[in-house]
Structure formats: structure tokens, C-alpha cells
Amino acid sequence: MSEKIACPKCGSEATAVSKRNPIRNAVQSTIVCRNCGFTSVREHPPDVTLSEWLAKK
Ligand SMILES: [Zn+2]
């Protein structure tokens, strides 16, 4: 699944593609921003969305 999030670097709209990792019981999200070229892979617990997870930091 994919979701739109605010780019952690430039704040414009970035796309995050999430994939469940059943072995680690986590969700791995690949963030790609077309505006500034930022890419990052984040892992977060399955009970929060990526944007919630990023907002916690
Ligand atoms: Zn960006």
C-alpha cells in the first residue's frame, strides 16, 4: 500500500510505499520525494501509520 506524507526534508508531498514484514512484525516504508530527491526507508510498528510515526520524532 502507499500513502502520501509530508517529506521529512522539504515538507512537500512525498510518497511512502509500505510493506509488511511478518517476521519482524513491523512495517517497512520506503519514502520517495519527487521534489527534493529525498529517499529513505523507515521501519515502524504496524499499529501506527507512517505519518503518525514520523510525527513522534
Ligand atoms: Zn522533499
Tell me what you see in this structure.
With 57 residues, the protein is mostly beta strands. The protein has one domain: N-terminal domain of TfIIb, CATH 2.20.25. 11% of the residues lie in helices and 47% in strands. It has one helix at 50-55; strands at 2-6, 13-21, 26-32, 39-44. Strand 3 and strand 4 form a beta hairpin. The longest helix is centred in the last third of the chain and has 6 residues, at 50-55. The chain starts with a strand and ends with a helix. The structure holds zinc ion. Residues 7, 9-10, 12, 14, 33, 35-36, 38 line the site of zinc ion.
Which helices and strands appear, and what pairs or packs with what?
Layout: E1 2-6, E2 13-21, E3 26-32, E4 39-44, H1 50-55
The structure holds zinc ion.
The site of zinc ion (ZN) has 9 residues, from loops.
Number of extended strands: 4
Q: Span between N and C termini?
A: 23 Å
Tell me, briefly, the overall form.
globular
Estimate percent helicity: 10-25%
List keywords for this structure.
57 residues; mainly beta; N-terminal domain of TfIIb; 4-stranded antiparallel β-sheet; 1 helix; globular; binds zinc ion
Short description:
With 57 residues, the protein is mostly beta strands. Helices cover 11% and strands 47% of the residues.
